Structures are given as structure tokens and as C-alpha cells.
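G.,

No rush on this.
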Amino acid sequence: MTLRVYRVRADGTADTVRERREFEAGDPPVDGLRYPPCACARCAGGEAGR
């Protein structure tokens, strides 16, 4: 899989935020590309899934 992060300007041109990078299935997540842990009160209090 190839991942590229970009921003589209109002005039329609694209501005690259992160260059293209190749990933294979099963590769560990790269720092900065994964979601941060949830900081809501429900999850922080150990009440998730109830």
C-alpha cells in the first residue's frame, strides 16, 4: 500500500504534507501515522466498553 498525505489549496493545487511511503501488510504502525490514545473521561477512567 502507498500512503501520501497532502492538502488541497483553494485554487485546486496540492501541497504535500508527507512524501509517499510504501507499506506492507503486517508492518508495525509508524509513529505519527497512528491515532493517539483516547483521552476522554470514559476511557481514562477504565469504563470503556460498558
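When you get to it, here's the other one too:
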Amino acid sequence: MTSTQTRRFVIVFVALMLGLSVLATVLITRGWGDDELQEQVGEIERDRREAMPRLDDG
């Protein structure tokens, strides 16, 4: 790749990473504000904890 192509690739790659970071931030903050979603996540976590083997089960 020429230096111009490399520079263009790096710029596009960095812009893509920044865009994905912004998207993830928006989706996460919306999820925090969604009570129904938080309830579903809590249920999933409880189910996984209950399904995990206990150390004292022997």
C-alpha cells in the first residue's frame, strides 16, 4: 500500500472505531434508563447464579 492509501485506511479505521464507540455508549445509556430491560437482565443474572454449581455441593 502506498503512504496515501495507508493514511486513508488509518483515518477510516479510526473514524469507524469512534463511531462504534459512540453507538455503544448511546445503546448502553438507553439500556440503563429502560426499566423493563433492566428487569430482564436481572432475571437472566438470577437464573445463571442459580444454575451455577456451588462449592459446598460436594
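Residues 52 and 58 are 13 Å apart (CA to CA). The radius of gyration is 21 Å.

Enjoy the weekend,
O.
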